[in-house]
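Appendix B, record 7
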Amino acid sequence: MSTAQRPDPTDPAPRGSALLRAVEVMEALRAPSGDAWTHRQTHASLARYLLEETHEVLEVIDDPSGHGPGALPDELGDLLFQILFHARMGQEEEPAWDVDDVARSFVAKMERRNPHVFGDAPEQALEDPADVDQIIAQWHAVKAQEKQQVQQDRQDLESSGAAPTRPRGWAEGIPAELPALQTAAKIVHRARSAGGLEQLLAAADAAASAEDAGDWGGDLGRALLDLVVAAEGRDDDPETALRALLARTVRELEQGTGA
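Structure tokens (predicted):
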């Protein structure tokens, strides 16, 4: 079957077969005989679409009653297009990578971080497999081990002169464009996983006590950080919570029930 040929929708197929068709569709679009707009795109030119599609997914999640029943799978399909697009362009890079590398990365990460499901002795991974707090703690511990390994590998490269020395910290690698609450949640998560939450809060206390703290709302920022710590401690995202509340508040006001 050519990459542009449509499969028979009446044929029974195992779950996930549509994903293979999606890969074929992406391949056809990027092929020399495919779509001219698709040919012109790069990772950088697609970045804004990735952000837009992510926000459209979040709008449906934050206010599901304000959208149709098929809105979430439809918006997730748009987001999937972005993932497949970036993976297809990866085939043209050096070294090349593709959608299978993306899937393998996902599988390997889930298997490492969920030994109670995928480990050699899953029944021994947790004292109580039904205890969500234990599962979260296990996830954090494995992720911390991964970070330590990455740091060790980087140090080995730096000591060999193969890579430049870079400053490291709990904020390293977090996109500057990320909202402040989400950034704070990531930093708190990393600090807690490394056993450094008290150190982080002490540094925040010092920053909020600076002479100019009154000029930029240091006390308010410190109070917000405490809310982030509480949210992260129960595995909630403060950014999502506030965004969802605002979406529902606006809908209540528009419906005239907020009076």
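Remarks on this record: The radius of gyration is 23 Å. Residues 145 and 194 are 9 Å apart (CA to CA).
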